[in-house]
Amino acid sequence: MAMKIRLARGGSKKRPHYSIVASDSRMPRDGRFIEKLGTYNPLLAKDSEDRVKMNMERVQYWLSQGAQPTDRVARFLEAAGARPKAERKNLKKAVPGAKATQRAEEKAAKAAAPATEESAE
After folding, report:
1. 3-class SS at 24?
2. What are phi and psi of 84, to 5 degrees?
3. Cα separations (Å) of 113 from 69, 90, 101, 106?
4. Residue 102 confidence (pLDDT) above 90
5. Where does the chain show beta strands of DSSP type E?
6. How many CB atoms are located within 10 Å of the residue 68 CB?
7. Fewer CB atoms < 10 Å away: N or C end of the chain?
8. 3-class DSSP state for residue 77?
9. How confident is the model at residue 84 (pLDDT cuts 50, 70, 90)?
10. Spatial CA neighbour of 23 closest among 11, 6, 39
11. CA angle 104, 106, 110 (to 5 degrees)
């Protein structure tokens, strides 16, 4: 059975509250889970100690059993010191989109057109 440590959403509309759970990866996000490992409340301040609460003993147990944390849970574990910090790269972050590239090309073409006319005279 492929195990995941992931977030299960709770709370009402616009007021999210998440449970950190160990579940079978084939189950739906908010569906059946095996064990609740902690909570995450994104509405609290980032420096609040109640924002992320985890039972680290049980998390370590599930990791030793081969459970894979999702990206967000892996970041929580890195912040808690339970996992080494993974290097992440967003190689396309600085690359402009298609429309911005097209606008830049058009602007460069317009700027080059009058310059060539002046140099021809």
Report:
1. strand
2. -70, 150
3. 55, 36, 18, 11
4. yes
5. 3-12, 15-24, 35-40, 52-54, 68-69
6. 14
7. C
8. helix
9. confident
10. 6
11. 115
Spatial contact of 78 and 85, defined as CB atoms under 8 Å apart: yes
Whether the Cβ atoms of residue 6 and residue 21 lie closer than 8 Å to each other: yes
Q: Phi and psi dihedrals of 74, rounded to 5?
A: -60, -35
72 token code pair: 């967000």
Which band of pLDDT confidence, cut at 50, 70 and 90, is reported for residue 13?
Answer: very high
Cα–Cα distance between 38 and 82 in angstroms, integer?
14
- Give CA–CA dist 62/82, Å, rounded: 12
pTM here is 0.70
CB 9 within 8 A of CB 30: yes
Q: Tens digits of per-residue pLDDT, 17-69?
A: 999 999 998 888 888 899 999 999 999 998 988 999 999 999 999 999 999 99
